[in-house]
Predict the structure.
Amino acid sequence: MTSRSPAPRSRRERPAKPALSYEGIVDTAVRVMRAEGLQRVTMRRLAQELDTGPASLYVYLANTAELHAAILEELLGAVDLGPGEGPGEGPGDWRERLAAVLASYTRVLFQHPSLAHSALLARPSGPNYLALVEAVLALLHEGGVPDGQAAWGVDVLLQTATAIAAEQAGRDQDAHAEDEHGALADALRATTPERHPRIAALGADLLSGTPEQRLAWILRTVINGTLVTPRPEA
Amino acid sequence: MTSRSPAPRSRRERPAKPALSYEGIVDTAVRVMRAEGLQRVTMRRLAQELDTGPASLYVYLANTAELHAAILEELLGAVDLGPGEGPGEGPGDWRERLAAVLASYTRVLFQHPSLAHSALLARPSGPNYLALVEAVLALLHEGGVPDGQAAWGVDVLLQTATAIAAEQAGRDQDAHAEDEHGALADALRATTPERHPRIAALGADLLSGTPEQRLAWILRTVINGTLVTPRPEA
DNA sequence: ACCTGAACACCGTTCAAGT
DNA sequence: ACCTGAACACCGTTCAAGT
C-alpha cells in the first residue's frame, strides 16, 4: 500500500488554477463587471483574474465585442418575460404587457448602460435573447399585428429599447457627458424664434418629462407605429 | 531702410506650426477620419498631426467624446434638409418629406457608422444639429402633430436614425461582427416550433428585406407612432 | 492664458513556442 | 488542441513646469 505517499497536492490544495472554459470566462467577466463596471472588463484584466495571459482567452472568444455580447446574454436572464405569458388576460392588454416586457429589458440594460452601448454592435444570440425575441413576437401576434410587421417590428422595438439605455451610458459614468447634454439643452434654450421658430415655440417642452415617462411614451409610440404601418408590397 | 534685412522667416517659410485652435483641431480630425477612419482619430494621433503633445488638445476639448461630437456636427452640414423646406407642396406629403430628411441624416452617418455610435453618447449641439432638429419639428408641425408629441418625437426620430446607423458600425469594419450577426441569424433559423413557436412561424421573414427597405419602414413606423400616440396627461 | 514633455496606467491582438 | 510569454503597436488623461 502506498497510502502514506503524499496526495497529489496540486489538484486539491487550492482551487488556484481551474481549467479555462467559456463559461468560466463569462462568469468571471460578469463578476468583474458587477464589482467594477464594464470598463474594467478587458481581455488583459480578465486574463489576470484567471491567472493566465491574455492570449489564452482568444481560444474561447474572437474579440472583446464577443465578450461583451456574452455578458449581456447572461444578464438577460433577469428580464421579466412574465407579462407576456398570460395569453388573453393578465394585467392589461397586450400593448401594456409588451411595453412592460420591453421596459424590463431596458431596466436590465440601465444597470449597465455601457453594455447597452456594446449591444448595438454585437447582439447576443443565446437562449435568453431568443426567449426575449419570442416573447415580443408572441405579444405582437396576440395583438393581431400582421406577421410581416411583427417580423420587422421586433427588431425596432428591441433596438429602440437598447438605444435608450445606451444613451444613458454617456450621462452615467462620464462626468463630462452631463455637460454635453447640458450643451444641447443650453443650445435649445438659447436660440431665437427668428433662427429656429419651432424650437423656440416648443421651448422647455423639448426637455420635459422624467426618463421613465419618456421611456413609457417611446415604447408605446413604437408599438403603435408597428401596429399601423404596413410593410411595402414588393 | 532695412529692406535687405532677413524677413522673419519663422512666420512665412513653412506653414509648419499654425497656432492651435478649436476649428483647426476639428478640421484636422475630420481630415484624418476621412483618410483613415474614426478609429485613427485619437488624441495622440491628432496631436502628432498638429505637431504638438496630446496634452495641448485638452485646452480645447474636455475628452475624446467631445472630439467625436464636434466631428459629427461638422459632417451634419451634408444633411439634406431640402425636403423639409417646401411648406405644403414639395415632393410628397409631410410624412414622406420627413422620412427623406431622416434618411439623409442616416446616410451621412452610414458613411462613418462608428461616429453614429459615438453620437449616442455625446450628441452634437452646434448649428448643423440645431438646424436638423428645427427641420424635423417644422415637418411634424406641418403634419399637425400635437406639440407635446412633436417635442418628444423629435428625440425618438433622431435617436432611431442614429441607432440604425450605429448598428452598422459593427457589421462594417469588424470582420468578426459579420459572424455575430450570423450567430443571431443562425440561432433564429436553428430553433424549433416547440421551443420558440413564433420565431419558427415567421422564419426567414425575420431577416428579410434590404437595409434600405427596413430603414424606410422603420422611419415610417416611428413617424406614424409619433402621430398617433398621445402623451400622458400628467 | 496657453502650451507642453513626460509620465502613469493602462489597452487589443498576434505570434512563435511550448505541452 | 489548448495554452502561453512576450512583443507590437498603440491608447486617454494628468501634472508640473515652462512661456
